[in-house]
Amino acid sequence: MIPRYARPRMVSVWEPQSRYAAWLRIELLACEAWAELGVIPREALAVIQKRAGYDLDRIQEIEREVRHDVVAFVSAVAERVGPEARYIHFGLTSYDVVDTALAVHLQQAADILLEDLEALSLTLADLARRHKHTIMIGRTHGIHAEPVTFGLKLALWYSEVERNLDRLRRARETVAYGKLSGAVGTFAHLPLFVEQYVCAKLGLKPALISSQILSRDRHAEFLLTLALIGTSLDKFATEIRHLQRTEVREVEEPFVEGQKGSSAMPHKRNPVVCEQVSGLARLLRSYAQSGLENVPLWHERDISHSSVERVILPDATILLDYLLVRFREVLEGLRVYPDRMRRNLEMTGGLVFSEAVLLALVGKGLSREDAYRLVQRHAMKAWESGEAFKPLLLGDPEICRHLSSDEVESCFDMGYHLRHLDEIFARVGL
């Protein structure tokens, strides 16, 4: 069953029609290679190329009897070709066809995901530049720390997406390998030329060595990359969910006309898309775990990996395609509330500038321990009483012996904290 979240372009990569079309192309290319070597007569090759085809219903009918998908496919094609079909699948084993075709499908899927990631990167870059100077409070452990800007937060995400682009390009290369090496990888019944010919025509590289299958560490690396990309989306979505909380309300995912947040409470505007992103990212991580479990197989192969891959490879790529597009839509419609950000920053009455005061005192010759003690004493009082931090500092004779009122005032300069914005943005390419 095709998942609800499936987008047509990615689904088309994994449809039975696409799979059998790739299998047929590999079989025909192998026949071409054999003809180049003089094993298949050119006349027979011409007949095979003209007549080769298949009917999906017929493949399924044969498979119900033989219980082997590649045998059913080859038999269905042979029925159309006639006597010359004896050259089809010559010297090959099933996974020469299946694994090489899988590499083709993974290239196609990776290309779609790369387009999705590039689009997300552009969206983040635009949003980061737009909010480069949108001041907000930075939080560590969920507690107010020091000032940042929303643009800095987005620039951080942009940089992570750029790394994920690099990872996915490398993962695409890792699975861009085919194999036509026979039943146990020894090329016992076909020369290396056949593998080289077919892979070259498909834009793949021949595996340096294989067993009956390509080693599954390649596919595990691909799935781990998809899981890492999904986990980045989870990270971004989790941040939006926190910032959308009623007590914070600094940003909000899109809420369209007619949308309802609750069956019981008409006021609700929940971060449902971001919650969905976080939830489905867990599924991607589980697929990566399954991919790791597929690496250790018995001897030259068993088929314990096969049934798993029929689920996880299509669904992981379909799912990530959906998540990338869906989260980009969140960013494109994101509601940002700079005034609320400013109010939240000011909520603690200037406490977020405590480190600047600490360093100013150290700069005047106090030990770090003594300076920390002085600043923390007033910080804790402000925290518990709700009083503004600066007046408490200015009212302390011990602090005033070291810092003038102007020097205390300068510690509360927002521009000082954000003076390196341009350099940071330039470092990440924004």
Explain the overall architecture.
The protein is mainly alpha-helical and about 425 residues long. It folds into three domains: about 10-85, Orthogonal Bundle (Fumarase C, Chain B, domain 1); about 95-345, Fumarase/aspartase (Central domain) (Fumarase C, Chain A, domain 2, Up-down Bundle); about 350-410, Fumarase/aspartase (C-terminal domain) (Ribonucleotide Reductase Protein R1, domain 1). The protein is built from 19 helices and six strands. It has a two-stranded antiparallel sheet with strand order 1-2. It starts with 7 loop residues before the first helix and ends with a helix. The model has no long low-confidence stretch (mean pLDDT about 95).
Write the layout of secondary structure elements.
Elements: H1 8-14, H2 16-36, H3 42-51, H4 56-66, H5 69-81, H6 94-130, E1 135-140, E2 143-149, H7 150-174, E3 177-178, H8 192-202, E4 205-206, H9 217-244, E5 251-252, H10 272-293, H11 304-332, E6 335-336, H12 338-345, H13 354-363, H14 368-385, H15 389-394, H16 397-400, H17 405-410, H18 414-417, H19 421-427
Parallel strand pairs: 3-4
Antiparallel strand pairs: 1-2, 5-6
Helix pairs in contact: 1-6, 1-11, 2-3, 2-6, 2-8, 4-5, 6-7, 6-11, 7-9, 9-10, 9-11, 10-11, 13-14
